[in-house]
Amino acid sequence: EWKQDAKEGQTIAGRNGAGSQMDQLYCPTDMIVDQQNHSIIIADSWNRRVIQWFNQNQQILIKNIDCNGLAMDKNGFLYVSDYKKNEVRRWKMGEYNNAGVVVAGGNGQGDRLNQLSFPRYIFIDEDQSVYVTDRDNHRVMKWRK
After folding, report:
1. Cross-referenced PANTHER family, in alphabetical order (predicted)?
2. Is residue 38 left, alpha or beta, with left meaning phi > 0 and alpha meaning psi from -120 to 50?
3. Is the entire prediction scored with pTM above 0.70?
4. Is 110 part of any domain?
C-alpha cells in the first residue's frame, strides 16, 4: 500500500514466506482490485489458485488452474488466463463452482488465430472485447464479444 511521503511499503497479502497456506502466496503473477468490495484478487500461480484477500480474510475463488493474468470487466465478470490450457476463461463474480466459459483460445497450443501459446496478461475494453498478451507467439490478440 503506497502512502504519500512513505519511506517503505507495507505487506498486504502473502505473509510468512512462500507456501500454500491461506495466508501465503507462491509465485503470485497478477492482481486486481475488486472495486465493488475493495478486495484484492490474486493469481497465485504456483499454488494453482485464484485467491481473494479482504482485510485479513482469504478465500479461494478458483482452484486447480494454472493462472497467470487477471482482469475484471465493468459488469464484475472475472477473467483468468490459464497458461497450460492456453486459454482465457470468464466467471461471473460469486459463481466459481463451475469451469467458467472459454472466451479466448481453448483450441490447444499454437499460432492460429483461434489459439494461444502461454497467454499472460488480459485487458477488457468497454465493449467487453478481450485482449491477451500471447507470450510465445510474440503477439497481442483481441477477441470481440
Report:
1. E3 UBIQUITIN-PROTEIN LIGASE NHLRC1-RELATED (PTHR24104), PROTEIN LIN-41 (PTHR24104:SF25)
2. left
3. yes
4. yes
For the chain, give the number of residues.
Answer: 145
Q: Which residues contact 55 (CB under 8 A, 6 or more apart)?
A: none
Domain assignment present for residue 123? The answer is yes
Q: What is residue 145's predicted lDDT score, i.e. its pLDDT?
A: 82
pLDDT digits (tens, 9 = 90+) for 41-74: 999 999 999 999 998 899 999 999 999 999 999 9
Q: What is the CATH number of the domain that holds 57?
A: 2.120.10.30
**Strands across the sheet containing 87-92:** 67-72, 77-82, 87-92, 101-105
Question: How far is 102 from 138, CA to CA, in rounded Å?
Answer: 21
